[in-house]
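Changelog-adjacent note: as of this version, every example in the card shows the full chain rather than a window. The one below runs 60 residues end to end.
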Amino acid sequence: MSNGASILTFMIISFSLALILIMKKDSLPANVKRPLAILALVMVSFSFVLMIFSFFSGAK
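Full-length structure tokens:
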């Protein structure tokens, strides 16, 4: 798998996790909500960093 495909896969997974957490926020137990939300926030933030990095590194 190429580097671009790995970045794209990570982005899809992180945005999917965030979307699932938003859609199922009422059915999650209270002690699980905060760690999953923090994990999703970190993953989405890192995927934005990877997206910006790939834009700048691809424009040679």
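Structural remarks: The helical segments are 3-23, 30-58.
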